[in-house]
Amino acid sequence: MTVTGIITAIVIGAIIGALARLLLSGKQPIGILLTIIVGIVAALIGTAIARGVGVATTAGVDWIELVFQIGLAVIGVAAVAAFQRRGHRGVRR
């Protein structure tokens, strides 16, 4: 993977993760770095699913692939937020 590919993955991951956080209601107790990581993973898995289904090679914007990516990011952010909340519940302050 080239430097340009890595930077592109980070930017797309940040956008996908941010969109996922916007679509979820309430406050998610996760940081921006974790949001970007969830977004990158969701983008990669969403692309793989779109290719498997046969919709990743459409002309123009791949809207179906984007829906897969954002949907997976929403699930990922919700799962990480739930895990973070459960982990903080046992901490006494």
From TrEMBL:
The chain crosses the membrane at residues 6-24, 31-51, 63-83. Its main location: membrane. It is a multi-pass membrane protein. The keyword Transmembrane applies. InterPro entries: Transgly_assoc (IPR007341). It comes from the Bacteria. It is found in: Cell membrane. Keywords: Cell membrane, Membrane, Transmembrane, Transmembrane helix. Belongs to the UPF0410 family. This is GlsB/YeaQ/YmgE family stress response membrane protein. It comes from Actinomadura keratinilytica.
